[in-house]
Amino acid sequence: MKSAVTLTGVKASDAMPPSVQATQRWPLYAAGFTTAFGAHAVAAGLGAESAEIGLSLLALGVLLALYDIAEVFLKPVFGSLSDRIGTKPVIVGGLLAFSATSLIGLWADQPAMLAAARLGQGMAASAFSPASSASVARLAGKKNTGRYFGRYGSWKGLGYAIGPLLGAVAIISGGFTLLFGILAALGLVVAVWAILSVPHLEPLPRHRYTIVDVWRQSTERSFLGPTLVLAAATGALGAAVGFLPALAAREGLGTAGSVAVVTVLALTSSLLQPRIGRLRDQGALTDRPGMIAGLLGIAAGTLIAGLLPGAAWIYLAAVLIGAGIGVATPLAFAHLADSTPAERLGRTMGSAELGRELGDAGGPLLVGGIAVAAGLPWGLGALALLVGLTTLAAPGSEVRDANAQDEAGIPLTGGQVS
After folding, report:
1. Closest by alpha carbon to 279, among 136, 145, 146?
2. 0.90 cut: is pTM over it?
3. How far apart are CA 210 and CA 151, in angstroms?
4. How do residues 288-339 score in pLDDT, each as one tens digit?
5. Is-contact 5 342, C-beta < 8 A?
6. How far apart are CA 365 and CA 355, in angstroms?
7. If you ran DSSP here, which 8-state letter would residue 15 be given?
8. Under a CB-based contact definition with an 8 Å cutoff, are residues 176 and 49 in contact?
9. Each residue of 228-274: pLDDT tens digit?
10. Fold entry, domain 22-203
11. CATH classification code of 210-402
C-alpha cells in the first residue's frame, strides 16, 4: 500500500527520521539553554556593573535592548532560511557566530565593544533558536511533541534561572572578560556537539505562497492563538524577573532573598514543563484547557504580587507565575508544531518566537509605564488583566491536521510547490 502524500507533496514518512535517539535531541536542548543563559547572564551583569563601566541609564537601556531587537527582526528570516536549506546548517552556523561575537566581549570595558558583542549575540541567537525549535518539532513527529517541547522549554528555563547567578559569579571572579569567554566556549562546545549528534533533516519541498496565503496562515487561530499565549507568558516572565525582586527588596529580604524569587519562578517552570508535555502526549491533558489554566495561574500570581504585601505572598506569586508558564508554554509550542506543515516549521517557529520577544519587551514596559503614573500594583493588575484576556485567544483542543487534503487530494494550504 502506498504511503499517504502529505500537504507538502512528500511522503509522511519522509518528513521525519524513522527513529530518534536521545543523544540527537540533547544538543537542541543545549542550544535553547545557550540563548537563555547568554541573554540573562549578560543582562544581569550589565545592570550590576553599569556604574563601573560608565554607562548612563539610557546607555544601559540600549545595551539591554540590543539582543531582543536583533531577535525581533531576524528570527522569522532565519526561520524561513532553515526551511530552505535545512535546520542543522542554521543551528551550527548560529552557534559558531554566537561564539565568535562573544569574543568581542573580551574588550568589554568599552561600551562600544559591549554593544557590538550584545548585538552580535542577539543576531546569532536569532538563527539557532527558531531552527532548534523546528528541529525539535521535526524529530518529535506527532506522538512526542509535548514531551520534547517540555524538555526544550525546561532547559531554556534553566538558562533563565541560573544565568544571572552564574553571570554574577563570573563577573566577580574575572569581570566581563571571563563572562564572555565562558559564553564563547559554550557556543563552540554546543556547535561541535550539534555537528556530531544532530541528524541532518533534509529541507522539504515548499509551496510558493502568495501574500494572501501568508496572511491567512498568520491569522489562523491554530497559529495566532498559541503565539499570543506564548507572548503573554513571556511578557509576564519578563515583568516578573524585573519587578518581583524589587518587591522583595521592599520587604527587606536583601539581595540574596530578592534574587532567589526569580530562581524559584524559573525552577518551578523548568521542573513542570517536561511533566506537562508528557501528560499531553498521553492524552491526559488537552491544549486549550491547559493553556487557559496556565494563563489563569500567571494572572493570579501577578495579582497576588501586586495586591498582597509580605515575603510569603511574593514567593507564592513566583510559584504561581512559574507554574503557569510551565503549563502554557509547552502546550502552545506543541500545538504550533502539530498544526504546521513540516515544510514551513522554521518560518512558523521564527514567527512564534517573534511573538515571544514582543511579549518579553512589552510586559515590563506595560507594568513600568502604568507604575510610573499610578503605582506598581496598578501596573501588575493591568498585566494580570491582559494575561487573563488572552485566554479568549487560546486555540481549540482539536489540532488541525497539518497533512490534511481535500477529497481530490489537493493540499488545503494552497500555493505551488517550489
Report:
1. 146
2. no
3. 35
4. 999 999 999 999 999 999 888 888 999 999 999 999 999 999 999 888 888 8
5. no
6. 15
7. G
8. yes
9. 999 999 889 888 877 888 788 788 877 677 778 888 888 899 889 99
10. Growth Hormone; Chain: A; (1.20.1250)
11. 1.20.1250.20
